Amino acid sequence: MSDSMSYAVLVAATLFLGIGLQIAWFFFYSFIKRKRIESRISEISIAIGKNAENPENEACALNYLKEKFSPEKFENRITDALGLVISVIHMPLSLLITVWYFAMIAGRIFGFMNIEPVVLWVPMILQLLLSVAIFIFSVFIKIVFGRYPGEAKEFNKEFIKTIK
Length: 164
Fold this sequence. Notes:
The chain is mainly α and 164 residues long. The chain is 80% helix and 0% strand.
């Protein structure tokens, strides 16, 4: 197999793996989000002493959530700030890693960046490590403050939408 052919195969492999990892991460995140909702419903039910899924208890559940995610609470301000920091760091880094990956491919094709084909795996690994690090950090914040980064801000934003 020629060098350019093996490079093309490696590019295709990293692209398919990268897309596969993104799809897998999306399904994992959707699963985690469902689990968070189930956990939140259980927490509300315990806190109000009633079944939170019962429409008759909606007002009690909503009052509990408004109090828990009040912007006046210090822990909500901290977790919202940490959520913003995560977004400000994650988006540019993720974009930079993606641009770097495609620049390496273009550089090899057009001859301005002579890299070994194996190096194409580095951005994939970095992207995965970034996602895992953010997940671990988010779980740590949940353990410390009882809410995920940005969760209070997200609740308040959705609550304001429902009022209007």
